Amino acid sequence: MGGVAVAALFAAPAHAQETAADQGGLGEIVVTAQKRQESSQKTAAALEVYTPDQLRKTGVTDVSGLTTVSPSLNIGASSGAAFLSVRGVASRDFTEIGDSAIAVSIDDQYLQRPTGINASFYDLERIEVLRGPQGTLYGRNATGGAVNIISKKPVDHEEGYVAIDAGNYDTINVDGAVNMPVTDGVAMRASFVSRYNEGFRDNGPAGRGDSTNVKGGRLSLLLKPTDRMKVLLSADYMDIGGTGAAYDGVKLVTVGGVVTTRPKTDAYDATHFDLNTRGVMDTQNLRLLGRVDYDLDFATLTYIGGFVRQDLYNRWDNDGQVDKSFIYTRDELSKDVSHELRIASNNSRGLIWQAGVYYFKEDLKLANYFDLAPLGTSINVREYHYDVDTKSYAAFGQLSYDLTDKLRASAGIRYTKDQKSRVGYSYVGSLTQDVTDGIAERTYGTDDTHASWKKVTWHGGLEYRLTNANMLYAKVDSGYKSGGFNNFGLGAYDPETLIAYEVGSKNRFFNDALQFNLSGFYYDYKDQQVSQLVGANTVVVNAGKSRIWGIEPEFIVAPTRDDRIDLSVTYLNAEFTDLCTAVDASGMCTTSYAGNTLVQSPKWSINGGYQHSFHVLGGELTARAQTQYRSMQWMTFLNRATERQDGYTRTDLSLEYKPDGTDLSIQAYVRNLENSVVLTEAAQSGLYGAIRSQYAPPRTYGARLTFRW
Fold first, then answer.
1. Which residues pair with 504 in a beta bridge?
2. How far apart are CA 568 and CA 71, in angstroms?
3. CA angle, corner 110, sides to 17 and 188, nearest 5?
4. Would you state the pLDDT for residue 84?
């Protein structure tokens, strides 16, 4: 099998179910991407689906890891917050006012805070990544797409698992679950997770940095009081500790008035840099969920109510250098409440419909501090004390109708009203003042800002079924993300809007052995919210207009029961056509970035993989190789060489053995074989005189032992 050796160089998103090999083909996954159960291959939308088996084989343990398997998804980070980008649509604003452009939810419960969405994956049923605006069915601000995390639900029989993972950087990860029926119509599932590593960065005087110490658990109860009613009650708790991510400040060097410094590319340098302040991450997340489904025969009525509490404390070295002393502390408490009530028809042909209402409220209290410590003792130069209130109301509906046996039309609409307010006070002093006398000169200020926005978003589409295994679709969707306001009286920014045109095809051939999906898209993006670092402050402005287009072919081949080949490609062209950040007194633009490329938008993203199962040693030995390639991308809209991620590859290898007749498996793995330096953030700062960067994990390796029953 000479072609096998070549194919082993590639790896990509895994889309088939664990039982696919037993079926002698790729199998089928049922998804709820359109908030009703249907096959992923019969859903007229671009989406990727990952099952627990695929997540384990590919080493994905949190939201950040999805970028290693999804070619259209790029993920950045800043101070513990994860930023998702799909097809060039992203938001890097992690302030108390900022919203993500990608809606992340767990079991249909929307997560607002970007620090909370990167909690560990454990005991899951699947993950769905939807590409493109989800402006009609999803709760809030899904301008670029949605990531749906679906946990494993209680079932009416005993089962469970325990997995232990040990690797370099003193990594010890443990997760597991126990499921049991309590009585007729009642089942319970308890699961847990613990993840620890000593830290990927050696920060000299500050010790190890970029460390993880996560512990959490989930308890779910499923009740079926009648044949028509199903009730799910769930509670999970996550304690996120460690040092948190570490900033690396690479000093700016200027030659002839030109900055010649570039982000680090050497793996040793990116894991060894001195800091004078050790980071602290101490965050607790509590999530409560209640869901009721009632079968009315002609339709199902569903209510989902949730509560999320995040108590966040994060302190870090903000300049990333040992000879400077800027320290930032975030101390925030947020409480989110959400309610959704919807009704959806039960039929799968003819007129299919659903409608609902949605409400979201967040109350966030913060006390954030910016300190200088030139003599080793922290002196506060800025502090902020705010109460931030966010509310969102929505009503939505979507329907489809079979015009013929092969042709279906769909339409949807959503009305959204958002309200935000920030009330409080601040003490603000110059970040460059002399504080060697132990005193900071500060000015007291108050904030009492309120704003609201309204928007109607919509969907229209056609799908044509050539056969039961082949379909074509075309659709247009609008997306919307609410506006906000900056600190220091720097003004408000408007909502952003997006109209997306997409055509695609989904296909299975050769008795379910070959899957080929293809999508092409064009985005008309207006008033995009872009973040820029001004001193130590994140300031958001609106870009006038952006144009995004691309094409995404995806292949999966299962030539035998023991072989699988994946290849997915994204070509992306994402450009600002109107971006003015400064005007003169007459209103003429004096600083324009039109023609620049959008943030985290590589032109080429390629994922590929090959796996083969050998029936040897009294069991099954599965070898998998996967790699990804990302071409050059910019980390800020300024497109400066100081903020550029060069093209890179990242390859993962794994070898898993399952003895016949047992429920035991052991897997050896290596992630990021090349030890590539991958930026999650890079921003040139005049205040710090440096490029301030953060990095994805370096090369890691280890072994995972799993026992199931």
1. 473, 519
2. 7
3. 60
4. 82
DSSP 529: E
Listed in sequence order, the DSSP H helices in 367-413 are none
**Count of helices and strands (H, E) across the chain:** 4, 45
Give the dihedral of Cα atoms 193, 150, 105, 604; nearest 10 deg: 100
Backbone angles phi, psi at 276, to 5 degrees: -105, 0
Rounded to the nearest angstrom, the gap between the alpha carbon of residue 28 and the centroid of all alpha carbons in its chain is: 25
Cα gap 223→204, rounded to integer Å: 54
Return the exposure string of 144-164: e unless at least 16 CB atoms fall within 10 Å of the residue's CB, then b: bbbbbbbbbbbeeeeebbebb
Residue 393 has, within 13 A of its CA and on its CB side, a CA count of 5
Q: For residues 9 and 628, give the distance between their C-alpha atoms in angstroms, rounded to a whole number.
A: 10
In the block, residue with structure tokens 């620049």: 596
- Structure confidence by residue, pLDDT tens digits, 505-548: 999 999 999 999 999 999 999 988 887 766 656 778 888 899 99
Rounded to 5°, angle at Cα 152 from 392 and 214: 75
Tokens read off for 583: 């005007």
Query: Which two three-digit tokens encode residue 247?
Result: 């900033």
Q: Are 495 and 141 in contact (CB under 8 A)?
A: no
pLDDT tens by residue, 455-514 = 999 999 999 999 999 999 999 999 999 988 887 666 788 899 999 999 999 999 999 999
Residue type at 178? V
3-state secondary structure 670-697: EECCCCCCCEEEEEEECCCCEEEEEECC
What's the gap between Cα 633 and its chain centre? 18
CA–CA distances in Å: residue 597 to residues 58, 129, 448, 456, 494: 30, 24, 36, 29, 21
Residue 538 Rama label (left phi>0; alpha psi -120 to 50; beta): beta
**Where is average pLDDT lowest: 88-97, 322-331, 394-403?**
88-97
CB 536 within 8 A of CB 370: yes
DSSP, res 123: S
Between the CA of residue 631 and those of 467, 571, 602, 649, 679, what are the distances in Å? Answer: 37, 10, 5, 9, 13
As given in the structure block, the two tokens for residue 347 are 């039929």
Dmax (CA) for the chain in angstroms is 81
Residues with Cβ within 8 Å of 485's Cβ and at least 6 positions away in sequence, in order, are 97, 420, 422, 449, 451, 491, 492, 493
Which tokens belong to 22? 């037993």
| Alpha-carbon span 559 to 24, nearest angstrom | 9
**Angle 355-358-359 (CA atoms, 0-180°, nearest 5)?**
165
Show the CA angle centred on residue 97, arms to residues 572 and 530, nearest 5°: 30
**What length is written for the chain?**
709
